[in-house]
Amino acid sequence: MSIDIDTARRVAHLARIRVEEERLPHLAEQLSSVLDFMEQLNEVDVDGIEPMTSVTPMALPRRKDGVTDGGIQDKVLANAPDAREGFFAVPKVVE
Amino acid sequence: MTELTYTAPKPKVIPGATGDWEIVIGMEVHAQVKSEAKLFSGASTKFGAEPNSNVSLVDAAMPGMLPVINEYCVEQAVRTGLGLKAEINLYSRFDRKNYFYPDLPQGYQISQLYHPIVGEGEVLVDMEPGVARRVRIERIHLEQDAGKSVHDMDPTMSFVDLNRTGVALMEIVSRPDIRGPEEAAEYVRKLRQILRYLGTCDGNMQEGSMRADVNVSVCRPGDYERYQESQDFSHLGTRCEIKNMNSMRFIQAAIEYEARRQIAILEDGGSIDQETRLYDAAKNETRSMRSKEEAHDYRYFPDPDLLPLEIDQAWVDEIGAGLPELPDEKRARFVLDFGMTEYDASVLTAEVASADFFEKVAAGRDGKMAANWVINELFGRLNKEDIALSDSPVSAEQLGGIIDLIGQKVISGKIAKDLFEIVWTEGGDPAKIVEERGMKQVTDTGAIEAAVDEIIAGNPAQVEKAKGNPKLAGWFVGQVMKATGGKANPQAVQDIVRSKLGLE
């Protein structure tokens, strides 16, 4: 198994997803099987083949430099659990 | 193109209890792209707006919002790359750098880890005339800025403003080629100057448009040369990164402190932990950010919302053709064309506006005299009174007018300074002022002779002394100048005094 329980716990923490201790073994197993499948794919020889970045032949769309958005403080803050004087208010973050 | 010759400065050496140490510095400078709108949204980049008013739903990372790249920001990054003589990558790509912080609503920063838009370039860092260091640039990538957190408005809450979220940044990464605190500050200054010339970043460090992360390590003399030869980092010491510096003075102080801290640990038999540190200006020390180890596990992966960024060589060439004359070239040209010193050329080319002003003054006039008047009289005065060149009470045309009057021998250098004072305080056309106020130099030998005769007649004792000691002729010249209110041509006075005293 490529992912052990400690790694699963760490990955969950990095993603800020709460996972109860008893669910970790199952999760580790599932993640491992995903990676095992990837290992299988790695056996395919892709030398000299460009990675596919899009299923349609299109280029990255670009925008002109102009202000077309903003000025919607009320909408931006609408879902905030707490907002004061135009700011999002969050529990104190100190370095 | 012309280039000035130079030699590399000596690395800073810090003597320790167990021998000498040297410093090795690499920098990551974050420069905000000068653009109207953000990198991936149409919200304004304007500084100082109402909190959360320059925020679109893309910046706020609302579900379903997709980033669309601002073409001008790409152009600015390419322009910056070309200005740093760097290779431009026609293919680049965006990656997600994942971490959690309240001022980063997406939970990731869109950046370019694997395929940056700009590759290797260089910056020539001037230490003094004839002494400069070529600092290699490793890469420049485009990325999003984060928002701002305010921690001091409430005892239990932090306040978050997303106005800066998503503004385009260029992260300019240098090789560890910088060898001392002064060089580090000069590097930032030079980079800032080039960006301002290019118009790609306003370089306002106080507003945070330019911030530097400084990587510092120490090594023994000879180690750095071994690294340079092999490009093998194992010859260098373990580095610490000092985050988010926005003042040249603090950059120097922080490096100085950090180098001494590392030397003290090493001389005590300890080892350096590679870590991120913050500089506390009030205490003049750096301290560990003590962030959790996981914070550095950014789990980069290609951003699935953005296709690769592919640009044409023709577009790059077009941007290249539009580059302005850059500081190094301008300075070299000033030295060659106007015969000024490298120092004067550096002063005049520090800002594009100063150089343009000077060139207006110097057009069709004596370059050295123009440089002297612009630097010593005008810049000196502006500095003293803390006035910006753009608000100068004396225009380039007026200053040129004063220099013309000296060149045509209408006024003497001394009167010119009085005239400058009048133009500075009252304004007006210098030639007219000279005419109206009778400031013209007296070249009429008859008038000068009369004045000389008068002084000679009034001071028989001095005349006798001068005959024995020709140096005393200077006293008579001084008296005549005083009597004519400084308007007599000094050379003419000199000649007449000497002939009347029979000193020839």
UniProtKB/TrEMBL annotation, chain A:
Q: Which UniProt keywords apply?
A: ATP-binding, Ligase, Nucleotide-binding, Protein biosynthesis, Transferase
Gene Ontology biological process terms in this record: glutaminyl-tRNAGln biosynthesis via transamidation; regulation of translational fidelity; translation
Give the molecular function GO annotations.
ATP binding; glutaminyl-tRNA synthase (glutamine-hydrolyzing) activity; transferase activity
Regarding protein family, the annotation reads: Belongs to the GatC family.
Spell out the reaction equation it catalyses. L-glutamyl-tRNA(Gln) + L-glutamine + ATP + H2O = L-glutaminyl-tRNA(Gln) + L-glutamate + ADP + phosphate + H(+); L-aspartyl-tRNA(Asn) + L-glutamine + ATP + H2O = L-asparaginyl-tRNA(Asn) + L-glutamate + ADP + phosphate + 2 H(+)
Q: What is this protein called?
A: Aspartyl/glutamyl-tRNA(Asn/Gln) amidotransferase subunit C
Q: Which Pfam families match?
A: GatC
**Quaternary structure?**
Heterotrimer of A, B and C subunits.
- Role summary: Allows the formation of correctly charged Asn-tRNA(Asn) or Gln-tRNA(Gln) through the transamidation of misacylated Asp-tRNA(Asn) or Glu-tRNA(Gln) in organisms which lack either or both of asparaginyl-tRNA or glutaminyl-tRNA synthetases. The reaction takes place in the presence of glutamine and ATP through an activated phospho-Asp-tRNA(Asn) or phospho-Glu-tRNA(Gln).
Name the Gene3D superfamilies for this protein: Glu-tRNAGln amidotransferase C subunit, N-terminal domain (1.10.20.60)
Q: What is its EC number?
A: 6.3.5.-
Domain of life where this protein originates: Bacteria
Does the keyword field hold Cytoplasm?
A: no
**The keyword Iron belongs to this UniProt entry's keyword annotation:** no
Q: Which SUPFAM superfamilies match?
A: Glu-tRNAGln amidotransferase C subunit
Q: Which gene encodes it?
A: gatC
Enzyme class per UniProt = ligase
UniProtKB/TrEMBL annotation, chain B:
Q: What class of enzyme is it?
A: ligase
Q: Name one Pfam family in it.
A: GatB_N
PROSITE patterns in alphabetical order: GATB (PS01234)
Q: Which UniProt keywords apply?
A: ATP-binding, Ligase, Nucleotide-binding, Protein biosynthesis, Transferase
Task: State the InterPro entries in the record.
Answer: Asn/Gln-tRNA_amidoTrfase_suB/E, Asn/Gln-tRNA_Trfase_suB/E_cat, Asn/Gln_amidotransferase, Asn/Gln_tRNA_amidoTrase-B-like, GatB, GatB_C_1, GatB_Yqey_C_2, Gln-tRNA_amidoTrfase_suB_CS
Q: Which domain of life is it from?
A: Bacteria
Known SUPFAM superfamilies for this protein? GatB/YqeY motif (SSF89095), Glutamine synthetase/guanido kinase (SSF55931)
According to UniProt, the reaction catalysed is: L-glutamyl-tRNA(Gln) + L-glutamine + ATP + H2O = L-glutaminyl-tRNA(Gln) + L-glutamate + ADP + phosphate + H(+); L-aspartyl-tRNA(Asn) + L-glutamine + ATP + H2O = L-asparaginyl-tRNA(Asn) + L-glutamate + ADP + phosphate + 2 H(+)
Task: Report whether Acetylation shows up as a keyword of the record.
Answer: no
Q: Partners and quaternary state?
A: Heterotrimer of A, B and C subunits.
Q: Which family does it belong to?
A: Belongs to the GatB/GatE family. GatB subfamily.
As for what it does, the entry says: Allows the formation of correctly charged Asn-tRNA(Asn) or Gln-tRNA(Gln) through the transamidation of misacylated Asp-tRNA(Asn) or Glu-tRNA(Gln) in organisms which lack either or both of asparaginyl-tRNA or glutaminyl-tRNA synthetases. The reaction takes place in the presence of glutamine and ATP through an activated phospho-Asp-tRNA(Asn) or phospho-Glu-tRNA(Gln).
Specify the protein name: Aspartyl/glutamyl-tRNA(Asn/Gln) amidotransferase subunit B
Source organism: Rubricella aquisinus
Q: What is the lineage of its organism?
A: Bacteria, Pseudomonadati, Pseudomonadota, Alphaproteobacteria, Rhodobacterales
